[in-house]
Amino acid sequence: MAFIRTSKRSTPYEDQKPGTSGLRKKVTVFKQPCYVENFVQATFDALGEKVKGLIIVVSGDGRYFSKDAIQIIIKIAAANGIKEVWIGQNGLLSTPAVSAIIRNRVGPHGEKARGAFILTASHNPGGPQEDFGIKYNTENGGPALESLTEKIFSITKTITKYHIADGINDVDISKCGTHSFTGPDGPFNVVVFDATEDYVKLMKSIFDFGAIKNLLSRPEFSFCFDALHGVSGIYAQKIFVEELSANPHFLVNCVPKEDFGGGHPDPNLTYAKELVHRMGLGKMVPTEKIPEFGAAADGDADRNMILGNRFFVTPSDSVAIIAANAVGAIPYFKTGLKGVARSMPTSAALDVVAKALKLKLFEVPTGWKFFGNLMDAGMCSICGEESFGTGSDHIREKDGIWAVLAWLSILAHKNRGVPRGGKLVTVQDIVRQHWSTFGRHFYTRYDYENVDAGAARNLMAHLVNLQSSLSDINSMIKEAKLNVARVIRGDEFEYKDPIDGSVSKHQGIRFLFEDGSRLVFRPSGTGSEGATIRLYIEQYQSDPSKIGVESQVALAPLVEFALKLSKLEAFTGRASPTVIT
Ligand code: VG1
Ligand code: CO
């Protein structure tokens, strides 16, 4: 079928600035005339001449409005000289699967995709009144770096036209197959393929599926995976049930829904209610037997939460434990780790492991894009964020299902000597063992969602001012008899990328204490409305007699101090946070 290229006039929007991970707004905002068109055209303009003849991937977590956006992007891509658009069946691909496809999938003539539009607002809710998002990933499979997103943003502010194919009708993305067209730049194809095949192949090359299958077949082992109605469900079905023969009853909410069943597809103790209940961590005691292992992923399947029987593993501990056990338990790492990395607010549990294993540790700002250069340079194998993000250099995104397979591998490894029917080493045993070897980093995060934007700015300005009055702060600690150590430093985190030398400033306000404790404040860059303030609180404990204390109890003095110091309630009018992790 032939099409022609037409250029349509458009007027710019002022608010198309990509945040921590792409452009995220309410669906109602994305539905404004030319809103999607402008952003997509601006991305092609920012990439410049090199878009001609490229293959790009377009898909996402299946949230409401994805199908409309896919059809628009196909037509704009065709008119901009893209050669092929690769789409997961039904427009579904998890964020990690997109990254894997860019890096590994090869077309019939040996060509690879060089970029992707990922349609997701990740852990934010979906539906007509909720959130949508578009994120551009580049040829290494990772999110576009700030240099590119800044360029896209500046183009969106002055854009006057976009190009669109005239003569391409909506493409049927519900069936696998190729749709061929001819345009002014030559042939243009839309290729629809199975959404799971590339990712499943990659996972099989990383993990020992035989060992995991053996663990899952043990009658004394049970598992519960909750996809929260996000896209991870299709991968869970393929990998856990079809490849690893897990009992299908181990999976819950594994059919993707456009509105995620009305919930937040956010794998934490507040939003993953059903799983939290099943694992015995809710207010009610479950009537069914509690599984040994529980896990959840977010809407686009790049986040994960790991639970044991009545036990929560903090994401900061999770990455440290994976790093400490990777070489023995996961074939991909058998020759050793190249280095490890964490985002700044993530606890230092990983630092202690890095020191013991004599590995280099990198501390980067919040956002997975900052790990990309380190991995491309072969300096980092495993990395993580406190926000339920864990992953490795197998791709350039965090990876929820990978994290679950990593934990299953560690469980399989620790239980390899336990006879069938014997008492299993549990998730809790593994974590407690880790704490007794490395010490424990008590950790909590308070999120204040949808705070007035002006109030949030004033709060941050107040915190910046406090950095120059540490002696006053320490007198206050003394006078109020707060049970916390002396503050020795207050600063704003700044990062210089060791590979490309780029500098990222204002990445969070830190107060560092004499005993290694930390308080971090930063505004979120992923919200779609108002401002979200995050407060991160951490304290290290190496005394074995104090390691078992309840986390919120251990951290109470620091929390009290953080709220007093920041005057958070006075600034925001919030007496308590929206979510505590
Ligand atoms: C949050 C997390 C950050 C994560 C980002 C994207 O960003 O804190 O660690 O990388 O979300 O995750 P912010 O700026 O709101 O704190 V996802 O799963 O939403 O792509
Ligand atoms: Co996500």
From TrEMBL:
Root EC class: isomerase
Cellular compartments per GO CC: cytosol
Domain Alpha-D-phosphohexomutase alpha/beta/alpha: from-to ranges: 16-162, 197-307, 316-416
UniProt cross-references to CDD domains, sorted A to Z: PGM1
PROSITE patterns documented for this protein: PGM_PMM
GO BP term, example: glucose metabolic process
E.C. designation(s): 5.4.2.2
Catalysed reaction, written as an equation: alpha-D-glucose 1,6-bisphosphate + L-seryl-[protein] = O-phospho-L-seryl-[protein] + alpha-D-glucose 6-phosphate; O-phospho-L-seryl-[protein] + alpha-D-glucose 1-phosphate = alpha-D-glucose 1,6-bisphosphate + L-seryl-[protein]; alpha-D-glucose 1-phosphate = alpha-D-glucose 6-phosphate
Annotated region (Disordered), positions in chain: 1-21
Record function comment: Catalyzes the reversible isomerization of alpha-D-glucose 1-phosphate to alpha-D-glucose 6-phosphate. The mechanism proceeds via the intermediate compound alpha-D-glucose 1,6-bisphosphate. This enzyme participates in both the breakdown and synthesis of glucose.
Record-given protein name: phosphoglucomutase (alpha-D-glucose-1,6-bisphosphate-dependent)
Organism (species): Ceratopteris richardii
